[in-house]
Amino acid sequence: MARRPSPTAETTGRSNRPSRTGPAQAQWPGVPVRRLRRPAAATGHHEPAAATARATGHYEPARDREDRTISLEQRARRPRIADVAREAGVSKTAVSFAFNSPDRLNPETVARIREVAEGLGYRPHPVARMLTQRRTLALGVLTPQTLSVVFSNPFFGAFLEGVAKAAEESGYGLHMISPVQGSLARAIGRATVDGVVVIGLSDDHPEVEQIRRAGLPIVLVDSTALPERASVEVDDEGGARAAAEHLLALGHRRFLVIGVEPPLPATTLDPEGVMSRRLRGYRAALAAAGIELPDGAVVVGPASIEGGVAAFSRAWEDGLRPTAVLAMSDAMAIGALRAAREQRLAVPAELSIVGFDDIDLARYTDPPLTTVHQPIRQKGEEAARLLLSVIEGRESARSEHRRLDTRLVIRGSTGPVPQTRQEV
């Protein structure tokens, strides 16, 4: 009696050898490893196996298997510029021109090269493209505060929205530059941008000087305006004066000013910076009413809600008892609102608070915040458009200065001075 041949891997679909994994499997995640089929002569069962495969619907002609293998290999390798050049019948230089300097080729050639590139799934490598064009197509926004402080202050969100709008319209992205491990210099050294919007730093700040030495175009925002440096600012002094005059008209005579602490390494306010301008506006209005604002009535902290809470609480613990608070940012004013509630002070019945910025949140606080409106998003747009003009080489833009108007917005956080606390 003839012995029936033992089943083989071809007739059962299982291998009689122990399974194993090797480097090839690890290099191709998600793609089954193709094992070589045993030659038909070795087993004598090629045709029956093929017939079984046809009968069960699993038959795959050899040519189809080869095509599938080639397809997998093509998908695994990223298309290169040489592949596009070969398929389009042009040089690699022509492919580079089609993406980086299309004006150097005729439109038909550019269209054909890009069509071939799209079919192959080719995309220019961003770093190579940057080196070719000598541009990063990115604008930097330099802030002296850490990102944790920046994103906790709604002012920066509105400002960056304006910067992003102008940048994206011109095909640019944004790169935030903030202190790395406490160092702005280290952050600037890592930034790869075509130009920088600097917010809240004086022109003589070491990091601004570092940007200047690097030859990067620069626009200063809320900083010292110098004749040779492009800048964007608002009427800080006029807005602050209007805020103080509003409180004076309500009968207030005892004031607390909450300011934004200067960026490190400075320990004093820049005499021509935005905080100094606002302080001058407050003091000018008070002086006109015969009131002197002592230095002890000015406290500073981080430009955030928590910074406002801490500043007001510290002043209250030091024995200051104002009837009105002038905060140099809405975030800090909102912090003062919260701190006043913690001290069981009713706003505005016992304490009036005025902010500066008119962020979106200001109208939704309890009570709604009286504040000085500045066009935050417009300021961001103006700064970005001015920087783009400098990048593009428009000489007049390098020393252009733009000033935007401010106005007082009266809401529910201010009221008449409490009679029991009014000073004579």
Task: Quote the beta fraction.
Answer: 5-15%
Major β-sheet profile? 6 strands, parallel
CATH class of the largest domain: Alpha Beta
Counting DSSP H or I runs of 4 or more residues, the number of helices is: 18
Indicate how many domains the architecture comprises. 3
Biggest sheet: strands side by side, in what order? 2-1-3-4-5-11
What is the helix/strand order?
A: HHHHHHHHHEHHEHEHEEHEHEHEHEEHEE
Mean of the pLDDT scores?
Answer: 80
Fourth-level CATH superfamily of the largest domain: Response regulator
In short:
With 424 residues, the protein is an alpha/beta fold. It contains 18 helices and 12 strands.
Structural notes for this entry:
The protein contains 18 helices and twelve strands. The chain is elongated, with a radius of gyration of 34 Å. The chain has 424 residues and is α/β, with parallel strands linked by helices. The strands form two sheets. A six-stranded parallel beta sheet has the order 2-1-3-4-5-11, sandwiched between helices. It has a six-stranded mixed beta sheet with strand order 7-6-8-9-10-12, sandwiched between helices. It has helices spanning 9-12, 23-27, 40-43, 46-56, 62-76, 81-88, 92-100, 107-120, 126-133, 147-150, 154-169, 184-190, 206-213, 236-249, 274-288, 305-317, 330-342, 376-391; strands spanning 138-142, 173-177, 195-199, 218-221, 231-234, 255-260, 298-301, 324-327, 352-357, 370-373, 401-404, 407-409. Helix 15 (274-288) links the parallel strand 6 and strand 7. The protein starts with 8 loop residues before the first helix and ends in a 15-residue tail after the last strand. It has three domains: 81-133, lambda repressor-like DNA-binding domains (434 Repressor (Amino-terminal Domain)), CATH 1.10.260.40; 138-233 and 378-403, 3-Layer(aba) Sandwich (Rossmann fold); 235-374 and 406-421, Rossmann fold (3-Layer(aba) Sandwich).
